[in-house]
Each structure stands twice: as structure tokens, then as C-alpha cells.
Design brief:
6-stranded mixed beta sheet; two-stranded antiparallel ribbon
Amino acid sequence: MRPVIVQLREIREQAKKLDYFIDSEFLEARLSDVLDSTKQSSCSGTIKVEKIQGGAYVTGQVKSEIFLKCNKCLSGFNYNIPEHFSFVLLRSPDHFKDETELKSGDLDVVYFSGEQIDLTDHIVDHLILEIPMNPVCSEDCTGIQYDSKIPPEFHTDPRWEGLRKIAGIDNSVTDNNS
């Protein structure tokens, strides 16, 4: 994978457009908890970087093939990431040396130092923020289906009899101790 690097001195009067591709290996390293590792996920698109006072404004388009694991049934499914994103790049101020409380408007701002900025992590951060915390393959996913009958060869300890009665489990199915 080729990093998405912007040289700020190259952006003068005209915006700069860059194409990018983020491969499955890089995504797996960052999103291994939610990705379906049996399928190859990838992300590509175009970003446009425009110079503004004190930094740059970045807009981008995403074309993604992200395969997630359903939290209910554990099957893999294709998840579509929203196509557009944007954020502002600003030079890192000196007063951030101590802890600073962020406001809601600060979440679309990325601070940098130097003249060269690697945007790869910021693009992947956009993907991470767009993935649901508990992804499901469909709204009506019923989850893993278990056989509710207890196999006849299953022997239970008689001390659990009280719980079987509370649960309404038939003793003839589970009582093979005799």
C-alpha cells in the first residue's frame, strides 16, 4: 500500500487531487475486531486538498468493499461506508502541550506539524467512525440458531432438579441416570 502523503508547499492557488487505495492488509491491522477475515476488504477513492489560511481543507470520496462480521449470527456481510468525508488540517498550536477539552467542532479538525502530511490514518479513521459499534447483517437477523432440545444422552446432576422445574424442562428428556 502506498501512503497518501500531501506536501503543503505544493498546494498554492489550485487544489490538489490524489487517488488512494488502502489494501486489505492495512485495514485488517486496524480493524481486525470487526472485519470478516475470510474476505478481502479494500478502500479506494479520491481526495481533494485545498489551501486555507493556516492549513488545508480536505474532502474525499470513498469506494469501499468492507466485509464485517455480524455481532448476532457471526456471518460476514458487505457494509457500505458513506461516500463523502471532509476535515480541516491546521498547524498544531503550542497551547496543546497540556490536556485540552475538545468541543464538538474540534472533531473535524486534524492538527499537524511540518510540511508533509500522511493522510492515510485520517482516511482510515473516517472508516472506523462510520462502522457501527455492533454491526448486524440485517435488521431482522435472529442470531445463531441453537437446538433447544437437550440430547437424550445428556446426563444431569440431580441437584439441578429445582432449576429444571423452574425452567419448565421435561424430566423425561433429561433423566437418563437410572
